[in-house]
Amino acid sequence: MLILTVTFVVSLLVLIGAAKYFTEAAERIGLSMKLSPFMVGVVIVAIGTSLPELISGIIASAQGHSEIVIGNVLGANISNIFLILGVATIVSKRSLQLGKEYIFIDLHFMLGSATFLILFLFDGEISRIEGGMLILGFIIYQVYLLPSDKLDEMPTLNDPEIVKKMDKVQWKDIVILAVSAIGIYFGARYVVQSISEIATVLDVDKTIISLTVLSLGTTLPELTVSIAAARRGQPEIAVGNILGSCIFNSFMVTGVASMINPISMPFELAQTSVIFLIVAAVFFYLLSQDKKVSKWEGMLFLLFYLVFLLKISGLA
């Protein structure tokens, strides 16, 4: 059991670290190739912070562990809203202000993506057709963002002087991209394998581990970015990163995984997490109507996350 736990922890750290280096190298290469700020910031970087969920979902689906896919997606989205938003609000120097128009566009798409995910889960299976519809939803979201002035969570793109200096692709970045891609693959592969073996040894459902430990681990990149943005006094980036990650998880991670293999899971197994996801999405929507999230509301989010962990683990 100790070896399995160490394998899981090391694999998860490799997955997260490799995703970070991959994203940063991809950003520098994109800037050097003179791609638009939208392509680099909203596509490359946004997808990069969700690579741990995406790659682990693809591998889990290919190996027939669909409960790991959906458990990770549901758990990651709940962590994004309750845990990451709560922490970002508390560490911020002031209340998180949600004055930017695109925040509410993201918020509406987040509600829409969560609704589609929950509706498709009701019959216990997400088919390839439904997966294709989820991917289409993400494409619509990206096209809608094309004319927007959405800020990027990577400070590089928001500094014109740094962008100007990047006029040639560095071989170092290509090597980092290739090595980190290999790290992402093997990290995700052994994460999925160790979860399956740990669940067998402990005689617990793989969904439970995916909803808690795996989802918490794969949301660490979003947690780091959001805390840094909140401390810099850029709440729009912090909240936009959280919402964008939720949209990507629901639409793309679930969609791509179900295109590889239809995702099967009895709705009863996901019922508790689905209820918490509904509460998280609706509660955040209602609280954000005054265009800010206070520190006290952030503490309430953290309390909800604690209750979620207790309920899922069977301790409450």
Describe the secondary structure blueprint for this structure.
Elements: H1 2-32, H2 37-49, H3 51-62, H4 66-91, E1 96-97, H5 101-121, E2 125-126, H6 128-145, H7 160-165, H8 171-202, H9 206-218, H10 220-231, H11 235-260, E3 263-264, H12 267-287, E4 292-293, H13 295-313
Antiparallel strand pairs: 1-4, 2-3
Can you summarize this structure?
This protein is mostly helical.
Write up what this structure looks like:
- The chain is mostly helical.
- It has a single domain (2-313), classed as Up-down Bundle (A middle domain of Talin 1), CATH 1.20.1420.30.
- The protein contains 13 helices and four strands.
- The protein has helices at 2-32, 37-49, 51-62, 66-91, 101-121, 128-145, 160-165, 171-202, 206-218, 220-231, 235-260, 267-287, 295-313, and strands at residues 96-97, 125-126, 263-264, 292-293.
- It has a two-stranded antiparallel ribbon with strand order 1-4.
- The longest helix has 32 residues, at 171-202.
- 48% of the residues are buried.
- The mean pLDDT is 78.
